[in-house]
Amino acid sequence: MWIYEKKLQYPVRVSRPNPRLAKVVITQYGGPDGELAASLRYLTQRYTMPIPQAKAVLTDIGTEELAHMEIVATLVYNLIKDAPLEEIKRAGLEGYYADHDRALYFVNAEGAPWTAAYIQSKGDPVTDLHENMAAEQKARSTYEYLIQLSDDPDVSDTLKFLREREVVHFQRFGETLNLVHEYLERKKYY
Amino acid sequence: MDPQGLNLLKKIMALEFTCIDFNLYLDTHPDDRRALAEFNAASDALAAAKKEYETLYGPLTNFGQSPSPQAWRWIDDPWPWERTF
Ligand SMILES: [Fe+2]
Predict the structure, then answer these.
(1) CB A33 within 8 A of CB A139
(2) Across-strand partners of B61?
(3) Domains of chain A, CATH where assigned
(4) Residues A4, B39, A49, A187, Cα dihedral to 10°
(5) What is the ipTM of this complex?
(6) Contact between B10 and A11 using a beta-carbon 8 Å cutoff
(7) Predicted confidence (pLDDT) per residue in B19-75, tens digit
(8) What are the residue ranges in chain A where pLDDT is below 50?
(9) Which chain A residues are within 8 Å of B84, Cβ to Cβ?
(10) CB distance A4–B13 less than 8 Å?
């Protein structure tokens, strides 16, 4: 069961319409290292986690990533909402516009649609947790590239918050991996 | 929304962030008593701030987690993506 909270996890503000920035930020909505992929990866891996800590971590981080997906969507929505068509064309977003107008859709920065091939669920908790640690690093790198590309300090502020969360998630997955290793060691001897 | 409402909402966001971060930490450190006490203090403060906000500005959560006395205010604008800070 999930409950919706009618608020963002972190405030979003954009200085002005900016379809050029929207075009790259959207990759954290529907791209390979984006928040949809992160959330669905963790929420589908949790069923085969062997210890309580791991089930909790995957449920909670998977849920937090949904809140991040909403933050990224809010950024993109506000960056293109009032953008004139001329600017949308100049930003190279006319292909996106043809298919989606100014609506939100799960694509990467080049317009490729989201695919479940971005994520894995292997049944081996050690393998899955390694995948998740790598995923958090990939998301961190992406946020750093987006911050480099951003010419809007308000957008950069939100991107920095999201980058910071990837660092924390990486840390928690690392601790979870250690706990799983301890559990597997114990199982060997008893 | 008036500035007081926005400030209250920001306070809720900050308190809930504290709760989220302690929650994740406690998932892998369930025996840390100090973190547990901090989590519970933040959780109490969050519940109080949410109650104050919801009385004035309507429910923050759906499906019965927040009451809706007098009128059904859940559908009221703005939704989170429409709010400018
Ligand atoms: Fe993350």
Answers:
(1) yes
(2) A5
(3) 19-189 (1.20.1260.10)
(4) -170
(5) 0.96
(6) yes
(7) 999 999 999 999 999 999 999 999 999 999 999 999 999 999 999 999 998 899 999
(8) none
(9) 13, 78
(10) no
| Closest Cα in chain A, distance from residue B80 (Å) | 5
Query: What is the C-alpha to C-alpha distance for residues A8 and A147, in angstroms, rounded to an integer?
Result: 20
Token readout for A47 is 């069923």
User: In one letter, which amino acid is A68?
Assistant: H
Ligand 1 (single-atom ion) residues, CB below 5 Å: A 166, 169
Tell me how far the alpha carbon of residue B12 lies from the centroid of ligand 1, in angstroms.
22
| A:B CB pairs within 8 Å | 72
Global pTM exceeds 0.95: yes
Cα A146 off chain centre by: 13
Closest-CA distance, A42 to chain B, in angstroms, reads 14
